[in-house]
Amino acid sequence: EETTTVLLEAANFEPAGILRTSEKLGRRTEGSNRWEKGVDPHLAGPAAVYATELLVSLAGARWVGAADVHGELPERPVVRFRPERADALNGLAIAPDDQRALLGRLGFEVDGGWSVTVPTWRARDVTREADVVEEIARVHLDEIPFTLPERTAMFGRLSADGRLRRTVEDALAGAGLEEAYTWSLAASDPRPDALRLPEPLSAEHAVLRTSLVPGLVEAAQRNLDAGNEGIALFEIARVYLPAADELPDERRHVAGVVEGGFARAKGVVETLFGALGAELTVERTQRPELHPGKAAAVPGGWVGELHPALIEGTWGAFELDLDELLDAVPERRVYEDVITFPALRQDLAFVVDEDVPAGELVAALRGAAPEAREARVFDVYRGGQVPEGRKSVALRVAFQSPERTLSDEDAAEIRARIVAALAERFRAELRA
What we know:
Strand order of the largest sheet: 4-7-8-12-11-10-9
Structural class: alpha+beta
Largest sheet: 7 strands, mixed
Mean pLDDT: 89
Low-confidence stretches: none
């Protein structure tokens, strides 16, 4: 109520100086973002007039004077334009009169010789003929035909690394996952030593990621919020691990997040290893982002069930170092002849110590019995019939010979070898 005099300033600032000062001081504001990109200096006058009109009409003010101080303002660019050139670049014939009228509606001035004077507010991004052609194209974008350049020959082929990456993509897509692309920069990272940018553009993009899973979890959460179901995402991208040098150790990772928990995530990993022809071994592990007791280490990475605190529901996830994974892929696949003799199948249950991994049991079984063409775990039992600190692991085994049909006597001899080997290595006892 005591205010009697108001001085109104409409100023314009030079972009490069604002950019340099903002970067030097490490301060990013809405104002600096606007000014460093350039604002039309010719708009300062109209802005001052409009603001004055608002004060007079809305606040009952009385305008008493004005001053205008400025250096030499930049001239409006003048571009030589050819309508036929626009037709050739756009692949669409537009009448010259229509092009002239269109440019006029956009604020451009076109003389009789097709010299185009650019409006002041477009002076920074329209400086050549191709820019004016783009103004024509964006209005008629829906009419421009989709065509491919003519090709008479094709050279080149995928590298070995490229073929393996394509195999990974095809395997994951075949398993029902959809590819996603997430930010390389994040607000935070699970690793406390993750590299932080000295001058980030925003707090949300301040740290170089060391894992792909947090970004995929965020993408899955957005899909959940949108009401989507059956979400299954994967990504192949780089992570940036801290190193002794200033530059990070850039590694290519493949990661996935799927609804369905540990079982589905492990099934996806098994499918991927099967497509690559690599051997999958699974060992128990612990990770902060995974549910306790539902985390496994695999060659090149891990697979498990996401901790409920990260995302609502039951979710499985995996992340593998793609370079390590591809190193484990055999250069040449060796196929064995199909055995025409029928397999002899048996279920064997062994009682072992609680800390014995089931995968090591399977590996030892195969080593003791080359005739075991198939061997997989189908049940793990803990209860009153098994001593405390021990567990019962049931294996489904198929014995098969390429030379003859195996008899029950042959199976008994093979089984005896397996029992002896597992007893010696793991103190295993045949339960059934």
